[in-house]
Each structure stands twice: as C-alpha cells, then as structure tokens.
C-alpha cells in the first residue's frame, strides 16, 4: 500500500513537473495579460493625454476579439511605437471595473461649458463613425484630456465624441451645466492626477517646520474654500483651532502657521478641473511632516 | 428558537451598519481630503530691515543689532535673512503698519521691524515687532530698556523671541559657551578656561593657564562652572563662580576624580572617581557634600550625564568588552546597554529636552558625533572627521557644539582644534570663531533675565 501510493505520488509529481516544464511556451503567451493589469491605473490618464488620434483605430480592432489572450500580442505589432502601453488598457477596462467609471465620467464633459462652441462646429462628422463600444472607451480618455487641461487642439477632438454620448445614455444633464448640484454624488470623482496636481502645488509652497520635537503630533488639518477660479473664497481654517491657542502647543501653532502660509502663498491654485468645481470647492488638507522629519 | 431570535437582531445590525456606512460615505464624499506629506526643508525667508534710529548714534546701534540678529537666525539654519537690497519698502517708511504686499513680492514670510531711541536717563529703548507677511498681522512685539553698551545682549534676546515665535521651540541665542582655550607648542601646551557669547563675541579668559584644565561644564544656574584641573599632577574637580571669580575643590577624594557634570537641578554633581585602577560613578550633593556611589563594577565607568528629569543617568562603560553607552536609574539600578552599533561609543550627553542622547562614536579610526534615543533606537550620525569629540547641547536641544581636531602634517604643523556646531538635521555644520585653538566646549543654559528687564 505505502509503496504503491508513494510510487504513484512520485509519478504524479513527475508528470506535474513535466507539464510545468512543458508549459513555458504557453506561459509566455499568458503572461502579458497578467503584466498588463498593474499598468492600468497610472498610465490611463498619462497615455490618453498624448495620443488622442491613434486611439480610435485601436478600439475598433480590440472590440472585435475582446476576450482571448492571444490577440493581445498581435495588437502591439500594428500599433505605432508610442501606443504599445495603451494597448493593454482597454482589455482590463472591459474585463473588470471600468464600466462604472464610464458612466460617471460621461457627465464630466457635459458640464464643461467651453467645449460646446467647438462641438457645434465639429459635431456632425463623428456621430456616424464608431460603434457604441469604442465610443465609450474614447470618452474616458478624452475626458481625461480635458481635465488635464491640454492643448486646444485636443479639445476639439474629444468634444464631438462627447456629443455622441448624448445619443446613447443621458441627454438632460448635458444641456444644463448648472444641474451639477442636483447630482453631486454621481458627478465625476477627482482623478488621481488632478489630486496630485493640487498636492504638488501646495507641497512646493510648504516649508516644513524643521526640528520639531514630536513630529507625529504635528499633523495639521486645514480646511480651504475655493472660488471657481482657484482662489481662496475665505481665509484657510485650521481644523483644530483650539489647540493653536493652547499654552504648551507652540510647536503645533508653528506647524499650523506653516501650513496656512503655504496655502496663502500658493493661492490661486492652477489647473483645477472647472467641471468638478463642486468636488474641490471645499478641501481638507492634512499637512503631515512625519515622513520629512523622520519622526 | 435561537435562530428566530437572532435574525431580527442581525437584521437590525445590518441596517444600522448600512446607515452608518451611508453616512460615512456621504461625509467622505462631501469633502475632498488631500494629505500633504512632502514639503521643502529649507530655511524660512525673513526680512530684517535696519532698525530705525532716533539719531546717528541710535542708527549705528540699530544697524549693528540687525547684523547680530541676522547672523543668529542665519546660523540656526532655520531662517534665511533676505538681502536688504531687495527690500521695496524702505525701513524708515514702515511706520506703524508695513505694506505687506511689498514684502510678499520679495517672498518674505516674516518681517522684523524695530526702532532704537535713547531715554532721558541715558538708557537705550529698543522696540521690535515680528510680522506675519501672509497673515498680515503682528506676531510678537517687545520693548527692551538697557544700558547703551548692552545692545548685543538685547539683539540676542530679540533673536530668541523671533526664533521662539516662529519655530515653537525655545531659543538659544542669549547663551554663552565656556571652553578650553589652547595655545603654545605641543610640548608646552597652555590650556585656559575661556568664555564667550554663543556667537563667538566677548571672549575672555577665566583662568591663568598655570594649571591644566579639562572638561568644563555649566551649572543650570549659569553662575557656576565645574571642571577638571590638574593640581600637583593630580586631577581634581573644581567649581568656579563666573560672577565672583572664586574657585574651590569639590571635596578631597583619595583617588582621581574626573568627568564632572551638574545634575539638571544644579544641586549635585555626578562624576567618575578612580580607585586602584577601577573607576566608578558617584554623585555628590553640593550642600551636604554627601557622596553616593552609583556603579560598582570592575570595569571603567565614566562620562555620566543626568536626564533632564533627574531620573536617569547615561554613562559609558567597557563592562561588555568594548566601550559602550549605558543608561541606569538615578539610584544606580536597572543598568541597560543602549548602544549596539559597530565601533566604540563614548561621552554620552542627555539632551536638555530629553528626547535624545548625543555621543562620540569611534569606528575604523574615524570619529563621529551622533544622536540616539534614550532606548538606543534611531541612531543617527551627524558629523564625521579625523577627530570629533565632546558634544554639548544647546539649551533647546536642537544644536550640538563639539570640537574637531585636525591632524598635523609630518613636520608637526597644521594641526589644531576648533569648535564646531551642527544642528539635528546634520546639514548645518559650522565652525564657531575662537581666538586660537579651542576644545571641550560647554553650552550654558539661557541666561536669566534680571528682574524687570
């Protein structure tokens, strides 16, 4: 018994090993999708910022094969040198979470008042062109373009596509930009790069209160209220105002003052997405010097 | 039964959880939160225009005071005084309220203004204000009255006020340094006790140089210094009163005494006492002159230093085979080794703010000044050279002063030692100007203000 089972176990093991060693050919093909997934998040905005025109071609190709892993390697080949990274993006998009984002992001372009002028000029052409699916993909990318405040050239391209959106899902919100208020929860989230842009601006202006004794106690929350032009609507509010005035909390007061100074120096903030004003009209900033001071 | 009982309860919990989640979600959605974790570790730009003088004499004083204040703040590494040439609003035009826009334009974050006048009784009246340029308000304002020749001290006091208001830490500019001034050839070295202001001004000698002096340490009361002097070839611990110039031997011990240091309360001195080739740590109460032995080991225990709360003593010992840093209770109990890095560790000094212990580290023939937490964690080396030794803390625990020896060349020239300071970042290292060679610095506490000053 023991020998028999042992023998068979060893045999099975060998067979398994063989299959593993036999697999590398397959695994090479299967690996790309796995690698493609982590690339997804960051590059979406970056990539879409640049190659606006080459993209419409790809979605058409991709839309046809969709699911299987094999087609992937094929796509990169036809695609021009800059886009190879974007190629993997659409796959994950369709495969997993993005549909939600698509729905949410559609409204973004609509509230934007400016592009509408352009839209009317270019509008008619693209309406006919692509199928519904590729359109969606374009929308996402194009929205991001606007957000990142790209050149006016690029704005022309996206705007027609946003009109297409009208046809498919919701018409009402687009016609009335001010209706933002009615659906604050569904309106577009700030993207990571937009938040990073705000963060980077403030970090540039912030002089960290160096040499503070207990840096971990010096995390300061400051609430700011912004006007649509990015300027301060009112002076910044330190969340824990009480603590600022307490005796023995001079270091906290110093930290809070450095935070307020950074905001006052940076204001007005640049490159804010106008269509998401309701998202950033009130921001709570947490100034956390711990990583800087090694506390 | 149980199931039917549980179900409504779990349902309730689920509903409550859902409500809470929804509320939390709404709250989270209502406001954008951004964490700012990176900033610039750079000195704060500060504008210090010349203090307005009522007459030519006061103008000279005002100009010199601004020079001293700018020097202090700049050396701290935390401030960058702006070039007066960049000022748009002229000092004499500032008056009661600065034009903040003008100062924002040159990127000043803080502005210091002042005025110097002479009182009818001949004393100087110095007024200063510290302004928040972006907040457009006064942050600090003081008036000092002083003898005309005391303007330098007032400049240090003003520097401290500015430093305290802008950093949240206490200042350290109105302090003095006592050190060993060295002169003469290597064979006939003359070592004298000397004292100076923290910025190197007002240097003078306290002892004649007939007897070798070592390791001076300030008392927390600032009127006294304890140090080691060789008398009849025997090292003994002395106490010297700065105001009266009197010195006295601290007890008459059978062996050698060395490495004396005041306790934070100033009423006792902790030191090493060597008997029969074995040195241990003792505390002497200065009033009762009673001596208590803290360590009792066959190894060499030396360089004791009290924690600011008087509860612990750090010292170095070779009881583990090599020289390392230990911490024990003030009674001598609970001895714990805290240094575990490569190399040897010496001269531990507890920071006045209690959070760190400074030390000298010797590793592969190089010397380092470093700091670690009292539990031995977070070791950081701040300086490195051929020979760095004898760290002493500024009273606010942000800056260390030490002495650095340069190697002499093959002909015995070019050597010598100088005082240096470095702050806790390790990036702001500077030489402290002294007349001639200097070693063994000791930083005084903040000098107390006279009543009504």
Summarize the SSE layout with pairings.
The complex is a heterodimer of chains A (295) and B (453).
Chain A: H1 2-22, H2 24-39, H3 41-49, H4 54-63, H5 71-74, H6 90-95, H7 98-105, H8 115-122, H9 124-128, H10 132-147, H11 152-156, H12 158-167, H13 172-175, H14 192-205, E1 220-225, E2 237-238, H15 241-245, H16 250-266, H17 277-280, E3 282-287, H18 290-293
Antiparallel strand pairs in A: 1-2, 1-3
Helix pairs in contact in A: 3-10, 4-10, 8-12, 10-12, 14-16
Chain B: H1 2-30, E1 32-36, E2 44-47, E3 52-53, H2 56-75, E4 79-81, H3 100-105, E5 110-118, E6 124-132, E7 137-146, H4 151-167, E8 176-183, E9 190-197, E10 204-205, E11 213-218, E12 224-231, E13 234-241, E14 247-249, E15 256-262, E16 268-275, E17 278-285, E18 291-293, E19 301-306, E20 312-317, E21 324-329, E22 336-337, E23 344-350, E24 357-363, E25 366-372, E26 380-385, E27 388-393, E28 399-406, E29 416-423, E30 429-432, E31 437-443
Parallel strand pairs in B: 2-4, 2-5, 3-5
Antiparallel strand pairs in B: 5-6, 6-7, 8-9, 8-31, 9-10, 11-12, 12-13, 13-14, 15-16, 16-17, 17-18, 19-20, 20-21, 21-22, 23-24, 24-25, 25-26, 27-28, 28-29, 29-30
Helix pairs in contact in B: 2-4
3D structure, described in words:
The complex is a heterodimer of chains A (295) and B (453). Chain A has helices at residues 2-22, 24-39, 41-49, 54-63, 71-74, 90-95, 98-105, 115-122, 124-128, 132-147, 152-156, 158-167, 172-175, 192-205, 241-245, 250-266, 277-280, 290-293; strands spanning 220-225, 237-238, 282-287. In chain A, helix 4 packs antiparallel against helix 10 (132-147). The model of chain A is unreliable at 26-186 (pLDDT under 50). Chain A is mostly helical. Helix content of chain A is 56%, strand content 5%. In chain A, strands 2-1-3 form a 3-stranded antiparallel beta sheet. In chain A, 32% of the residues are buried. Chain B is globular, with a radius of gyration of 27 Å. In chain B, strands 2, 3, 4, 5, 6 and 7 form a 6-stranded mixed beta sheet that branches. In chain B, strands 10-9-8-31 form a 4-stranded antiparallel beta sheet, with no helix packed on it. Chain B has a 4-stranded antiparallel beta sheet with strand order 11-12-13-14, with no helix packed on it. The model of chain B is unreliable at 23-29 (pLDDT under 50). In chain B, 16% of the residues lie in helices and 42% in strands. Chain B has 453 residues and is α+β, with helices and mostly antiparallel strands. Chain B has helices spanning 2-30, 56-75, 100-105, 151-167, and strands spanning 32-36, 44-47, 52-53, 79-81, 110-118, 124-132, 137-146, 176-183, 190-197, 204-205, 213-218, 224-231, 234-241, 247-249, 256-262, 268-275, 278-285, 291-293, 301-306, 312-317, 324-329, 336-337, 344-350, 357-363, 366-372, 380-385, 388-393, 399-406, 416-423, 429-432, 437-443. Chain B has 4 helices and 31 strands. Strand 3 of chain A pairs parallel with strand 1 of chain B, so a sheet runs across the interface.
